[in-house]
Design a protein that fits this description.
heterodimer; A: 377 residues; mainly alpha; ABC transporter involved in vitamin B12 uptake, BtuC; Arc Repressor Mutant, subunit A; 3-stranded antiparallel β-sheet; elongated; B: 248 residues; alpha/beta; Rossmann fold; 6-stranded mixed β-sheet; 4-stranded antiparallel β-sheet; 33% helix
Chain lengths: 377, 248
């Protein structure tokens, strides 16, 4: 691990790979945050699959593997896929999810056919196109990184420039349109940036799993913050960290494709965020539920004991645990809660069966009753 | 007289099926208008096509004598509360400030002036203490008031509100009614999609009864009749007569 880090600064290939992965991670992650909020995460999956025939056609037509050429082909095909999805949804009775599934498989299938065709042609130049399937970070050269840097910087600049417009577009497009903004044009612009963010990652991550770089960072980031700016920034950072991690690991182990490695890393971040993020995390929520549930049970048994005792002379009159069990049948056995009351100093156990409230317990029960019935005047 | 809202021959079709058919509606300025009708009557579509959100097949819309496209700054829209994702990562003040984005124009970020205006609008709906609250933590009534504040901050002349009373508590309903009356006092025209027939005579000056076609429109006292309600709702309203006879 430490060796890997020191190599990062000395090894030219590793440095190039890490730079490229970080840049595409930031771009895909931050744009993906918007896609998540607009419920368009799966559109990213369709776009990246739809890009494959574009890459193959660009190569077939130009015979070049220059990154800009292949990316242009990928972007055009990805954009066409997205446009076809929305036009099928608008003009036919086919629903969005079906249209998405159809376009994804049609474009991807066509892309695979073209790839097979290219591979059968005996041409030394064709080698490497198949790495677009699962991605190969080790294949990144400096030229690629500069392209990613240029395009990524432009995408993020535009996102910042249109920040307030994209925010309302994502939150309430109808309202936004009544303010006089060209919502359709902005929608196309954001989708266009989205396509570009996907396309610059295809060589490294691969068309099959690029959607993970779009969806996962945003989903993880949303867990940690309730502010859009922070969420998008965090999403970009998570994208960068997973990108760099996956690219470094895969390029230090020969033959390991980058896409799947990145997916494993970013998925672990998502799982961790789903479980442990404060407020929204599952663990935190369960703990809160458990705590408030416990509080409710304690109060219920306290009140039960108090009402029972009210039928006798003393508020500290003892009762058997079985009676309380029956009374609190809704909230689980009272016996466990009685133990808790004892620990809190609110009840005492007289013998194996009998329990009574302590003076402190009586006072608390009265407070609860007052709160429950006194507040409704 | 120049009408605040002047809709003529408005027809909207969805897959060849008419949703709104040949609608005419003239609303004088300074009036609170209720649009009522059964589910699927086209109430929301009427508002949306007036605001250009749904493309009409035919018809024209004038706001204070000019086409809507030239009057955008004078028109504010309160969409149905359920039309947005309230889990969106933002806070109350930010949502209200969105009402000023039209005046702010491209690329400019809201500054202190906008914040002050948004806070003032929040105070008008009794939500000034919630400015920094995440919108995911609001109750239904509070969400509705935030949407109203966002429209107030636009300082328009004509307001379109889609079911602002939907699922709100009594306190919020009261607050909204007070707000509507305040808007009327300031000469604004408010057009409200409304569901609770019982409160129509108490809250509104004019009513439009809609069921794909316009059944009737005009002053509540003249048009909110048993006959018109029956024509709008079909045989489904056994309570209609009780309702109409019970009104002031």
């Amino acid at each position: 691990m430490i060796e890997l880090f020191s190599d990062l600064f000395s090894d030219y290939t590793l440095r190039t790979v890490a730079m490229g992965a970080a840049l595409l991670g930031i771009t895909a992650g931050s744009l993906g945050g918007f896609a998540l909020l607009r419920r368009q995460s799966l559109l990213g999956d369709a776009i990246s699959h739809a890009a494959l025939p574009g890459i193959a056609l660009a190569f077939l037509i130009t015979g070049s593997k220059a990154p800009l050429v292949l990316m242009t082909g990928a972007a055009l095909a990805g954009w066409l896929g997205a446009a076809l999805i929305s036009s099928v949804t608008n003009r036919t009775r086919i629903k969005y999810d079906s249209a998405l599934g159809i376009m994804l498989s049609v474009f991807f299938g066509f892309g695979l056919v073209l790839l097979t065709y290219i591979q059968r042609n005996p041409d030394a130049n064709q080698a490497g196109l198949e790495s677009f399937l699962f991605g190969q970070a080790a294949a990144l050269v400096e030229r690629d990184v500069f392209v990613i840097l240029g395009i990524g910087a432009l995408v993020i600049f535009l996102m910042g420039l249109f920040w307030k417009e994209f925010k309302v577009l994502s939150f309430d497009p109808d309202f936004f349109q009544t303010l006089g903004f060209p919502v359709r044009a902005l929608d196309h612009l954001l989708t266009g940036l989205f396509v570009i963010a996907i396309v610059i990652g295809l060589q490294t991550v691969g068309v099959v799993l690029m959607s993970a770089m779009i969806i996962a960072p945003g989903a993880a980031a949303r867990q940690w913050t309730d502010r859009l700016g922070r969420m998008i920034m965090l999403s970009g950072c998570i994208g960068a960290v997973s990108g760099v991690g996956g690219a470094l690991i895969s390029s230090s182990i020969p033959g390991l494709p980058t896409g799947p490695t990145i997916v494993l890393i970013v998925s672990s971040i998502v799982v961790f965020s789903l479980l442990f993020a404060p407020n929204r995390g599952i663990v935190f929520r369960k703990y809160r539920e458990w705590k408030s549930g416990k509080q409710l049970r304690v109060e219920a048994v306290l009140v039960d004991m108090y009402t029972l005792a009210a039928q006798h002379l003393s508020a500290e009159y003892p009762h058997s645990a079985r009676v309380l069990d029956v009374m609190s049948s809704m909230s689980g056995p009272a016996r466990r809660t009685l133990g808790l009351l004892k620990d809190l100093g609110l009840a005492t156990q007289l013998d194996a069966k009998m329990w009574s409230l302590t003076p402190e317990g009586v006072r608390r029960a009265e407070l609860i009753i007052q709160r429950q019935f006194g507040g409704e005047e | 007289m120049e009408y605040a809202i002047d809709i003529r021959d408005l027809t909207v079709a969805y897959r060849e099926k008419p949703v709104l058919w040949d609608i005419d509606l003239q609303v004088p300025p300074g009036v609170l208008l209720a649009i009522v009708g059964p589910n699927g009557a086209g109430k929301t579509t009427l508002i949306k096509s007036t605001l250009g959100l749904v493309k009409p097949a035919a018809g024209s819309v004038l706001i204070h004598g000019k086409p809507y496209a030239d009057q955008r700054v004078n028109v504010a829209y309160v969409p149905q509360r359920g039309s947005v994702d309230w889990d969106f990562p933002t806070n109350v003040l930010d949502v209200v400030t969105m009402g000023l984005y039209g005046k702010l124009g491209w690329f400019k970020q809201p500054a202190k002036k906008e914040k002050v205006a948004a806070l003032k609008a929040l105070a008008q709906v009794g939500m000034e203490d919630f400015a920094d609250r995440q919108i995911s933590q609001l109750s239904g009534g509070q969400q509705q008031r935030v949407f109203l504040a966002r429209a107030l901050v636009q300082d328009a002349r004509v307001y379109f509100m889609d079911e602002p009373f939907q699922g709100v508590d009594a306190t919020t309903e009261r607050a909204i009614v007070d707000l509507l009356r305040d808007l009327r006092k300031r000469g604004k025209t408010v057009c409200v999609v409304h569901h609770d027939l019982q409160t129509v005579p108490e809250y509104f000056d004019e009513v439009m009864l809609l069921n794909v076609r316009r059944i009737a429109s005009g002053p509540v006292g003249e048009q909110f009749t048993e006959e018109n309600l029956r024509a709008t709702y079909g045989g489904r309203v056994a309570f209609v007569s009780a309702l109409v006879s019970g009104k002031k």
